[in-house]
Amino acid sequence: PQARAGIISTVEVLKVMEAFVNEPNYTVWSDLSCNLGILSTLLSHTDFHEDIQLFVRDVFSPIGERLGWDPRPGEGHLDALLRGLVLGKLGKAGHKATLEEARRRFKDHVEGKHILSADLRSPVYVTVLKHGDSSTLDTMLKLHKQADMQEEKNRIERVLGAISQPELIQKVLTFALSEEVRPQDTVSVIGGVAGGSKQGRKAAWKFVRDNWEELYNRYQGGFLISRLIKV
């Protein structure tokens, strides 16, 4: 917060983050991830955006290599959470080995050869979408339609905004208001787009303005409309 307020240098904050490279605690990494996400958002309008992605890859790759993709005997719930957090962060940042493995596991999952565990689905989905194309998005929307559990539908809805191409971002926003998405979950889809990229943020804001009447009538000024404006 002090860095965002301009009280201390962002460089000093990044140096502190680097010191946690051998930290095994999930809560610490969750906090680092959140703050790096905010920094990445702030820097997305500058020439430093790719530099911060490189920094993420450098900081998160050692813990990613230690954790690996598969659970170890006797590990706890927080280890699984940490694995999902780290792999998702590396995948979004374009870490080559993570992206390749995510694509391989996603293909096996879609083809029914090896179903992804629940804790790996979000990081794999967000990784393949971030670096995917229209075929990837179509596959994800198909998985959403076929999902028989609302939890899986919500999981997919939250990550769709990771897609990068402008025309596909529009497709996700249109999907958000379709009958495929429960009205109470529309905000999650739009919010995911807003948080996915600089292009997504602009597109989501325009989409909300263009569809304001429908959105306002849908939520009648309740907490969901407040949440939508916040995201």
UniProtKB/TrEMBL annotation:
Q: Which GO terms describe its biological process?
A: peptide catabolic process; proteolysis
Which UniProt keywords are listed? Aminopeptidase, Hydrolase, Protease
Source organism (scientific name): Onychorhynchus coronatus (Royal flycatcher)
Could you list the residue ranges that cross the membrane?
A: none
The entry's family comment says:
Belongs to the peptidase M1 family.
User: Where is the ERAP1-like C-terminal domain positioned along the sequence?
Assistant: 3-230
Database matches in InterPro entries: ERAP1-like_C_dom, Peptidase_M1_aminopeptidases
Identify the GO cellular component terms for this protein.
cytoplasm; extracellular space; membrane
* Domain of life of the native organism: Eukaryota
Q: Which PANTHER family match?
A: PROTEASE M1 ZINC METALLOPROTEASE, PUROMYCIN-SENSITIVE AMINOPEPTIDASE-RELATED
What this protein is called in its record is: PSA aminopeptidase
Signal peptide span = none
* UniProt keyword rRNA-binding, yes or no: no
What GO molecular functions are on record for this protein? metalloaminopeptidase activity; peptide binding; zinc ion binding
